[in-house]
């Protein structure tokens, strides 16, 4: 019989100007890239989201030296029973919800939300699902919900880039981006051959 998913809800207050920046990481597998801390410090996040497959929990302590950390358990994190499987984060400004996101390790199947995650996102009224697992940096939209996988800052897998993400919330919108951990530049997928 499958274990019930542990869910937590947290509320975070935006800055006085209504803005907020999340640094977003996933799939560290106990070994964040040597430049990951520097890249996160350059980003100057208000908080860091870790979308699971943390590995050694000391990784979270390292990240917490940069900014407050919100994390979920990934499929390798069986040693972390205190971490939730699902985390609903409400970003508030002057008492109103500016952004509600669902942080979960496994959320997509290819470019689509998994049915059970789509149901949870709808129930929780989340406008964005942040996930990890595949190590593939991705942003998209499915069933009216935004999807964001920051990629991985852990050991390289296949030929995938080592990247992290950012979510910049302004008074009027939220902007998602990927950052190449090795260069510090904005990461975009390679162009398609002509």
Describe the structure.
This protein has 194 residues and is mainly β. It has one domain (7-180): Metallo-dependent phosphatases (Purple Acid Phosphatase, chain A, domain 2, 4-Layer Sandwich), CATH 3.60.21. The protein contains three helices and 13 strands, in the order ββαβαβββββαβββββ. It has a six-stranded mixed sheet, covered by helices on one side. Strand 2 (20-25), helix 1 and strand 3 form a beta-alpha-beta unit. The longest helix is centred in the middle third of the chain and has 10 residues, at 115-124. The protein is globular, with a radius of gyration of 16 Å. The termini are far apart. The model has no long low-confidence stretch (mean pLDDT 95).
Give the topology:
Elements: E1 7-13, E2 20-25, H1 36-43, E3 47-50, H2 58-64, E4 69-71, E5 86-93, E6 96-104, E7 108-109, E8 112-113, H3 115-124, E9 128-130, E10 138-142, E11 145-149, E12 163-169, E13 174-180
Parallel strand pairs: 1-5, 2-3, 3-4, 6-9, 9-11
Antiparallel strand pairs: 2-12, 5-6, 7-8, 10-11, 12-13
CATH class: Alpha Beta
Enumerate the strands of the largest sheet in spatial order, edge to edge or round the barrel. Answer: 1-5-6-9-11-10
- Principal-axes shape call: globular
The CATH topology corresponds to Purple Acid Phosphatase, chain A, domain 2
Low-confidence stretches: none
Number of helices: 3
Task: Give me the count of strands.
Answer: 13
Beta content: 35-45%
CATH architecture: 4-Layer Sandwich
Distance between the termini: 50 Å
* Radius of gyration computed on alpha carbons: 16 Å
């Amino acid at each position: 019989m499958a274990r019930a998913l542990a869910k937590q809800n947290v509320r975070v207050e935006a800055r006085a100007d209504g803005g907020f920046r999340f640094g977003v990481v996933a799939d560290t597998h106990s070994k964040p890239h040597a430049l990951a801390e520097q890249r996160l410090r350059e980003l100057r996040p208000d908080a860091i989201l870790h979308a699971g497959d943390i590995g050694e929990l000391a990784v979270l302590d390292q990240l917490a030296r940069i900014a407050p950390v919100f994390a979920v358990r990934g499929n390798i994190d069986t040693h972390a029973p205190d971490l939730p499987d699902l985390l609903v984060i409400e970003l508030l400004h002057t008492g109103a919800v500016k952004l509600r996101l669902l942080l979960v390790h496994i959320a997509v199947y290819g470019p689509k939300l998994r049915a059970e995650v789509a149901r949870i996102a709808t129930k929780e009224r989340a406008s964005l699902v942040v996930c990890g697992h595949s190590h593939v940096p991705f942003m998209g939209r499915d069933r009216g919900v935004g999807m964001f996988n920051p990629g991985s800052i852990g050991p390289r897998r296949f030929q995938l880039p080592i990247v992290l993400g950012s979510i910049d919330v302004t008074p009027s919108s939220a902007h998602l981006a990927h950052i190449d951990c090795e260069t510090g530049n904005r990461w975009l997928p390679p162009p398609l051959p002509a």
